[in-house]
Automatic annotation (TrEMBL):
Homology family: Belongs to the FRG1 family.
Basic and acidic residues bias (residue ranges): 189-218
Keywords: Nucleus
Name of the protein this chain belongs to: Actin-crosslinking protein
Organism: Polychaeton citri CBS 116435
Entry superkingdom: Eukaryota
CDD domains the record matches: beta-trefoil_FSCN_fungal_FRG1-like
Length: 303
């Protein structure tokens, strides 16, 4: 038998021995000794640790609600039906990619299934609301003077920076508009197949006037359609969202075992005392509550 090469100093790999049905004692089988395994021995569930649960929660995708939320890996969900997002290939060609990871087809639950759909957002230093978007291949999203999107440049210029702002109030929350250096907006032409992303949409908002003709009304309706195509939902990883970071810090601060509390107090604690101290740790008045418990213990000692 040919064995793989081994070298001095290599660690020996220990093989896992799997327990088969033949190797189990007969007591684990039915009365006849040949039936199915008893329910208690069929499965062995490995309990999920707190660290693993926290890691899973951090890697989930959530929607950005404010400008300050935008950071790290993002997915730019476009206003198409069915939902698509902005993506690029290794050659820097930008296109729309259909989203597959959705709950009931809702864009607000979108998650990427392809690395090409992910853009890493970074805020431009010294600016407010200006970002760069880097693709999976290490090149930045840009828009030329014709409104064509590309992702071919490794360095950042004005064409590779975008102003992101919240969409108009009074409409669906959590929607953003992405503006280029030429004051045009990223949009999508949903009438084409597949939908085509563009960077040349211009918004000209007009107020309705008395005696307005039918032609002007139609023009205004067309502008509303353009505005809808410019609305982008930004999905991001939960661990980069400031609100999530604060909540996680509070949870970590609140975690303390009964043994640690008893060691600090110097005696065994009642259940209500443990609950009181854990609640105080979450709310920020832990030291005052600990002092009260210590004083109460001294009084009980000499009672």
């Amino acid at each position: 038998m040919v064995k793989p090469l081994s070298f001095k100093g290599d660690k020996k790999v220990k093989k896992r021995k799997r327990t088969t049905a033949e190797e189990l004692p007969s007591s684990t089988y039915g009365n006849d000794g040949g039936g199915e395994l008893a329910p208690a021995t069929k499965y062995h569930e490995v309990p999920t640790t707190t660290a693993e649960a926290d890691e899973d929660e951090e890697n989930t995708w959530v929607s950005a609600d404010a400008l300050l939320d935008i950071a790290g890996p993002t997915v730019l969900v476009l206003a198409t039906s069915p939902p698509t997002c902005l993506a690029c290939d290794a050659m820097g060609r930008v296109f729309t990619s259909k989203l597959e990871n959705l709950v009931d087809g809702r864009p607000g639950t979108a998650e990427p299934h392809d690395v090409r759909q992910v853009w890493v957002a970074n805020r431009v230093v010294g600016s407010e609301g200006r970002f760069t978007l880097k693709g999976f291949h290490g090149r930045y999203l840009g828009c030329d003077k014709y409104g064509l999107l590309f992702a071919t440049k490794e360095a950042v210029s004005q064409e590779e920076t975008f102003s992101i702002r919240l969409a108009d109030e009074g409409k669906e929350e959590g929607m953003f508009e992405v503006q280029t250096m030429r004051e045009t907006l990223l949009s999508v032409d949903g009438e084409k197949e597949p939908p085509e992303p563009r960077g040349d949409a211009k918004l000209k908002k007009k107020e309705a006037k008395e005696g307005e003709g039918e032609m002007e009304k139609e023009d205004r309706e067309d502008e509303d359609d353009v505005e809808a195509s410019c609305r982008i939902r930004i999905r991001m990883q939960a661990k980069f969202k400031p609100k999530h970071k604060v909540e996680k810090a509070e949870r970590v601060r609140a975690k303390i075992s009964r043994k640690e509390l008893e060691d600090e107090v110097g005696r065994r604690l009642e259940d209500d005392e443990v609950k009181k101290l854990k609640k105080a740790r979450r709310e920020g008045n832990y030291h005052e509550a600990m002092l009260d418990v210590k004083v109460k213990g001294k009084h009980d000692k000499f009672a």
